[in-house]
TrEMBL record:
The lineage of its organism: Bacteria, Fusobacteriati, Fusobacteriota, Fusobacteriia, Fusobacteriales. One of its GO terms (biological process) is regulation of DNA-templated transcription. Residues 67-172, 173-281 form the PRD domain. GO terms for molecular function: RNA binding. It comes from the Bacteria. SUPFAM superfamilies: PTS-regulatory domain, PRD (SSF63520), SacY-like RNA-binding domain (SSF50151). InterPro entries: BglG_antiterminators, CAT_RNA-bd_dom, CAT_RNA-bd_dom_sf, PRD, PRD_sf. This is Transcriptional antiterminator, BglG. Keywords: Repeat. PROSITE patterns: PRD_2.
Length: 281
């Protein structure tokens, strides 16, 4: 593959043998290279392809890599690798744009004596435990690279970017999802008059369920696979307290977001709540 453009020492655009233009990334891959040189393919760590659907994303990525100093792209690459390894999932490539931008301007702001308060900090920390822990490790990567210690609020912001890339949603929707999760857990807490153990694995699985439930709400889609009235009636009769809590959540969501749970969603949510309730008793 021959280099079309050197974006920084680690990133170039090339034309493949099939005539496709792609962005490739790898440590030192472009060091001392220029247009027309061959790429050492053994150094390739990441390839960003250009498709008809995401030409705009490809262009934004190229612009971001050219505009932002190389060390911030490297920081983002390290964080993405860490997140994909810890979460055991592939993140959307949009994170290379959004997170690089965020970290670059966060460092600039903090260096100028300004910091941005994360108003969702506690909700993020409790709702996205794994992502927040990755965010804390990301702060260490940033410190090691640019010798600047960012506040814990930034670990929360980084966690939101990771959730954004997990769900392939925009940042505003991720913030709304976080708010919905908080509202539902508050209803649960006050309905049963309990303190929620955020370290509990059953609680963790409950939060994961809420994350995708809230995403369906925002996208106005429903989980409606079985239409099993018999199962619905069994759950309602067998898990009375948990089902009553689900009804409260249903009414809150209907009133505030104009979204109606399907019967399947009420069943699944009641089962998750019942598992938590059994652990409290």
């Amino acid at each position: 593959m021959k280099i079309l453009k050197v974006l920084n020492n680690n990133v170039v655009t090339v034309k493949t043998e099939a005539g496709e233009e792609v962005i490739i990334m790898g440590c030192g891959l472009a060091f001392g290279k220029k247009r027309g040189d061959n790429v050492d393919e053994s150094k390739i760590e990441k390839i960003f392809t250009q498709t008809r659907e995401d030409k705009n994303l490809y262009k934004k990525l190229e612009d971001t890599i050219e505009r932002i100093p190389a060390e911030y792209i490297d920081i983002t690459e390290k964080i993405v690798k860490l997140a994909e390894e810890k979460l055991q999932m592939k993140l959307s490539d949009t994170i290379y744009i959004t997170l690089s931008d965020h970290i670059y301007f966060a460092v600039k702001r903090f260096g100028d004596g300004q910091s941005l308060k994360n108003i969702l900090f506690w909700e993020i920390k409790s709702s996205y435990k794994d992502e927040y822990l990755i965010g804390q490790e990301a702060l260490k990567i940033i410190k090691d690279t640019v010798d600047l210690s960012l506040p814990d609020d930034e670990a929360g912001f980084i966690a939101l970017h990771i959730v954004n890339a997990e769900l392939n949603e925009n940042m505003m929707n991720v913030m709304i999802i976080t708010k919905i999760i908080k509202e539902i857990t508050n209803i649960l807490k006050y309905h049963f008059n309990v303190e929620l153990d955020e370290e509990n694995q059953t609680y963790y699985r409950f939060i994961v369920h809420l994350k995708f439930l809230a995403q369906r709400l925002l996208n106005n889609t429903t989980c409606n696979h079985s239409n099993d009235d018999e199962l619905f009636n069994v759950i309602r009769a067998s898990y009375k307290e948990s089902f009553a809590c689900t009804v409260k959540i249903f009414e809150h969501i209907k009133k505030n977001y104009n979204y109606s749970f399907s019967r399947d969603e009420m069943v699944y949510l009641s089962i998750h709540i019942e598992k938590l309730r059994k652990e409290w008793n």
